[in-house]
Amino acid sequence: MENDYIIEMLNITKEFPGIKANDNITLQLKRGEIHALLGENGAGKSTLMSILFGLYQPTSGVIKKDGKEVQINTPNDANDLNIGMVHQHFKLVECFSVLDNIILGVEPTKGIFLEKKGARQKVMELSDKYGLMVDPDALVSDITVGMQQRTEILKMLYRDNEVLIFDEPTAVLTPQEIEELMKIMKNLAKEGKSILFITHKLNEIMEVADRCTILRKGKYVGTVDVKNTTKEELSKMMVGRNVNFSVDKKPATPGETVLKVEHMVVPSKAHANNAVKDISFNVRKGEIVCIAGIDGNGQSEFVQGLTGLEKMSSGKITFNGKDITNATIREKSKLGMSHIPEDRHKHGLVLDYSLEQNMVLQRYYEPQFQNAGFIKTKEVRKYAEKLIEQYDVRSGQGPITIARSMSGGNQQKAIIAREIDKNPELLVAVQPTRGLDVGAIEYIHSQLVAQRDSGKAVLLVSLELDEVMDVSDRILVMYEGELVGQLDPKKITVEELGLYMAGAKRDEVPAEV
């Protein structure tokens, strides 16, 4: 019956300059189901959902809600139809509190005055009901990415939306938070909410989705019942080839010490305590050292202190025997430190610059790219084109594409291409595969191992347990700003690693290895 479907997107096509992002796609969402939308970076998933949410208008095609054709010209139209969306890059006002962000646009008033008491009560009830545990008075700028995600979910629940769109909801969450989110999604579906769930993560689809629609390069590939398929079949439909899920690497042969961190302390912006408390370790040539931990245990502040984005309050950093504790970001970059940052928008790209400009952000002053203060535009373009091809960065207009208009995964690939191509002595890779599809993850992991095998030092910071176990040669676990364990991935289990990450186990970590 037609009315089995709460949402139908029929024959949707969307064209942008130089690219057909959606090419005659049909997607049908049943009531009370969790429907996954799977595809590579740039396959058109976010575009399709942005059309449903009123952010874009389709070039052609029809949208039906409850069997009736509807026009969704703006997000307000979508909200009126009880369609809500959590975007891949959150739409929050950083200087507002959590509560103010949740009620923004639907503020409760008494006469001409804002009436927050009832709103606050509703938010706390929803937070308790779904186990979201948010602090309504915290400033968004002070909370973790996982908490920002929960704030976005509460925004939808507060508006009583019945169709919930999650765009890459787990890309920024810890394994524990992902588990919680999966439970929340199942509970929402049980209560009759209908969920569209954009993801690259096949394990999550197998765990929570009822059906899955696969897109490839803007075209519809098929819709399958999840219980009747396998991860391997889904990945093949998504990328058009078989994908290797394990990381091929030979044992590490570490050489001299490249990075030595001694007694580093970094203050916290969120509270009076230090975020990083007296940590010491080193990284050598030819090894991948991974800092693992649950999000919010000081990893972000540690990386910012190391790379120069934040000031350390004490400690010493030595790089190839040279004291770089007070060196500038550019000095560190020139010495051979590359940094794939955690937040690609804040610290990785200038979003309103073109892709080619972003590719030379840290190198535009080199003789290869400038002469007497003038940029050699042909050289910049040639270099960008080389990286775009090598790393399969997909964009509508190639090197002149504005970075903001690219999909999150392709923005990430652009940063990785730029940082690895600098041929660094030390690659600091923070969540390098966040938001990437299985094919791209396979490629990035092989690049990290290639860096290691060519004698470079790699410092990986990851929340993905599979990545931590598969890619690293040595694991350092961070808990509440301290290093609580140094582990060999070949000798421990995921469960044991989880105990260290949760603070249930700890060892002394030797500063020298």
Description of the structure:
A hairpin with a 2-residue loop joins β11 and β12. The strands form six sheets. The protein has a six-stranded mixed beta sheet with strand order 6-9-10-3-11-12, sandwiched between helices. Strands 18-21-22-15-23-24 form a six-stranded mixed beta sheet, with helices on both faces. A four-stranded antiparallel beta sheet has the order 2-1-4-5, with helices on one face. It is an alpha/beta fold and 513 residues long. The protein is globular and about 70 Å long. It has 17 helices and 24 strands. The protein has three domains: 238 residues, P-loop containing nucleotide triphosphate hydrolases (Rossmann fold, 3-Layer(aba) Sandwich); 183 residues, P-loop containing nucleotide triphosphate hydrolases (Rossmann fold); 80 residues, no CATH class.
Identify the CATH homologous superfamily of the largest domain: P-loop containing nucleotide triphosphate hydrolases
CATH topology of the largest domain: Rossmann fold
Domain unit count: 3
Distinct helical segment count: 17
Which architecture of the largest domain per CATH?
3-Layer(aba) Sandwich
